Amino acid sequence: MFAAVIVGALLAIAPVSSEPIRKSGYAIGADSCGSGDLAFPRVQIDMKAGFCAGLVASEEDRLKFPRSIIQVPGRDLFVVADMGGWGHTDGRLLLLDPHAPQGQRFKELLTGIEYPFGLVIGPDKKLYASSAETIFRFDPLAENPRSLVETIIRHMPGRMIKLPDGTKLDESAHPLKQFVFDKSGRLFVNIGAHSDDCITPAPITKPCAAAEGASAMASIWLFTPPAGGVFPALKPNDPDPPHSVYARGLRNSMALALHPNFPDVGYAFLQGENGRDLPDIFKPNEEINAIEQGRHYGWPYCYDLSTPSPEFKSVLQSGTYKSLCTANALYKPPFSLLPPHGAPLAMLYYHGTKFPELEGKLLVGLHGYRPTGSRVLIYDVDDHGFPKPAPAPVRYHVSCAADPTHSFQTEAGEVAAAPFEELIAGWHRVNGVRPQGAPVGMTVAEDGAIWLVEDKNQTVIRIDRAAGDPPQPLPCDTRSQAMIDQLAAFVARDAQNSIRLTGLRKGLVEKHCVGCHSDFGLKAGQSDAEKDKTVLRFMLSQDGWIYPGDPDSGRLRTRLRGIGAEKLMPPGGESLPKAEPGYTRLLDIADLLVAKMVPGTRMRIKAGPPQRKFFSRDNRECGEIPAGKVVVVTQRSAVDKSGFSRFYRPADHYLSGECSDDDGYYIRREFLVPVQ
Length: 676
Hints:
By secondary structure, this protein is of the alpha+beta class. The protein is globular and about 85 Å long.
């Protein structure tokens, strides 16, 4: 039934030709967004009524890893920072002419830049940009822009750094330099943390050294210009302008927004915090912080509102950080929580004539690949630019989940937070139609349109006004019937897994779960073999329940065991391990069934960068799998792709929408290690 709904939805939006045009994973039809020569092919993402999204540029325009965008003042041209990718030093600044013909819209301005990211129009109306270590200005309209580059800051902690204990890092975790100017010309720069959590071998008895001192990481640095409000260009031997640490304990401040009246008393300086990574998809929450000079915002000692990080228990018992999270005037808890693992990478106040209903409101882009990310939020704010909190419960959306909304919670239970609307809501992957959304940089053009870039999908998107009712939201992707048939056949051919399935059906499903989930499809008069097949097919058809080979990633396991913030199933199941002999063994049998479902060798994605790319046979990029996840390798040395291993279909939400199961999935052999 659900599969039929998906097929119908896809057919309804498909172009007339048998094969839709696809760009960066988006199926392009005849509909457009915008008008005149600013009308672009409309992409099928679920948006607030009255809005649409047009695809301005894609991977076909040779974008590699675009991260930010800004308009050239007074001109209908834009500058895009294309980082090239992680581990690259070949970043570029590009000039985008949206009126030019497709394929001719970009011109290279500057090349060979290490991690270009920040793009800001300064108080002098010039264009400022950042690399991993520098901030500079230049004229994007000059015949030779490189000849006019003026560097104003030259030596900030970058990709390769030396920690206070002498440790050298080849790749700092958060080397990107987002920055903002206030109206007096003062410059605030994100100096991201060198790691996720600053954890060192236990026992930890001292504060995180890299976040201490006058050049602390995990902080916002303040540079103050000379009289006149403009920083001078540095000559070859000039020192950097002096700086101070404006605020500490901020793991990665990629989203920064100043109210136009800041620093007048009471006006907002907001930061979107990318919190530490915990395996639970609902922990910890991301944060909106109200930045004040001299305050500490918790990292790595506190997360959520005031939850102490257990690894730093000793540090929180004495000294500067004694009781930091709960009873220390140095700490300023978050102004509001953001959806957990949302990864806010852009934040701005909307000012423009195109969307009067957004005037003055705060827009926040969530880049995170987990089901809480891939969206753009709208916050109503007060006269000073602060979002308006509401009492608990305040809920947020979780894409493609059995429970599609979740309330903001900490270890203390439900908490107050600022509620929001969603400008872009449904941006989960739908194979054949769109990839999962990956918004990074965002800007408002002089005509009021909103422009954003996606790094993983290699696109530039323009948001304009749309007439009429919005299209129906697209359903979440589920397994095809052919895929379910194949998995069921794998189980049927494995004698041990057939026995495991029968045990689960009798001891768990029929005993405790019938009555929920549409009775798992069981009907009177079925034989035992038919019942086994019915139960298995039902579980395989539920989005996110089972990822073959990787029981830890599936909701079948987290719900049965009540892991993290998941509701325990069946209801009352917390007493079953003690009250029912053999119940704990049933839970282990469920894990074994999933782990051994597909023939092959279980391999873990090697530690390293946060995600590892995988490809089709013909080198199309199919998606990225986080380090630590498990895949089932069917060919350790793929005969049709040298240097790669072929593996079975990964967890669905890691697919980009570019590839099909028939292509196969391939990952470099060196990215795989045996499962211990």
